[in-house]
Specification:
single chain; Rossmann fold; alpha/beta
Length: 255
């Protein structure tokens, strides 16, 4: 393939573009089409491929995203490192709307998603004990701190099917089992990257408190409009953080 990239970036809700001067490339995969054409361009002298996981017009809900095609397309381009930010809800009071969380663990609460490249006949078991690249996580946290962002260096993200938000009982349950952040797209995206040998980091931008917090009547349940409002207020910070990560990404040794 003539088109190549070293770094991949996935865009989530409210994040549909990253670079101005790009070439859009359609990539066929054994798993069908990716969410959209991949935009390839230079960012701080590095070849970067950007893909909005919901499509540029946000037409693909989280449970319909072709995660395998998206990751395979990045692999076809030669991508070795992926930054996968997302909008997310908080399950604990310490993670506030506007905060960033560099998650280190996930809990999968989805169902029905194609979540492996190893469908047989060869049987392969890939450890997910530490699903996110520690080197990329450290870089994200370091650059976020340097920018003065309110950023947390770890957190467990619960991934639900969507597109609906949680009931109060579900939200309470997810926090009881150790969840601190909740989102609809982190599984199987991050795990599929691991199966392909691509280093992956998630940066969760907290936009809401899910179904509210237990015992806090002053914190209302999440509404989609409020999510987009908080995301819009912080998208520039997120883009700047990604730029700073890309600028320094060659200086770190990945897993």
């Amino acid at each position: 393939m003539k088109h190549r990239a070293d770094i991949g970036v996935f865009g989530g809700s409210g994040f549909y573009s990253l670079m101005d001067d790009v070439e859009e490339v359609a990539i066929d995969t054994p798993y069908g089409p990716p969410s959209d054409k991949l935009a390839i361009g230079l960012l701080k002298g590095k070849k970067v491929a950007f893909l909005p996981r919901h499509g540029k017009d946000h037409s693909i809900p989280p449970h319909k995203i072709n995660y395998r095609a998206n990751l395979w397309a990045m692999k076809e381009l030669g991508v070795k490192k992926i930054i996968g930010p997302c909008a997310a809800g908080s399950l604990i009071p310490e993670f506030k709307p506007g905060d960033f969380v560099v998650v280190d663990q996930f809990i999968n609460a989805t169902s029905g998603r194609a979540d492996t490249f190893f469908d047989g006949p060869n049987v392969t078991h890939v450890s997910a004990a530490d699903p996110y690249c520690e080197s990329l996580r450290a870089l994200a946290f370091q650059k976020g701190r340097e920018m003065g962002i309110s950023i947390h260096d770890k957190g467990t993200i619960v991934v639900v099917n969507g597109p609906r938000f949680s009931t109060r009982a579900e939200s309470r349950y997810f926090s009881m089992i150790g969840g601190q952040v909740i989102n609809m797209t982190q599984y199987p995206e991050g795990y599929l990257a691991k199966e392909l040998g691509i280093c992956y980091v998630n940066i969760a931008m907290i936009t809401d408190y899910d179904a509210g917090l237990e015992g806090r009547d002053d914190i209302p349940p999440v509404e989609h409009e409020a999510v987009l409002e908080v995301f819009a207020a912080n998208i520039d910070k997120l883009k700047q953080l990604i730029v700073k990560m890309v600028e320094s990404i060659d200086d770190i040794q990945c897993c």
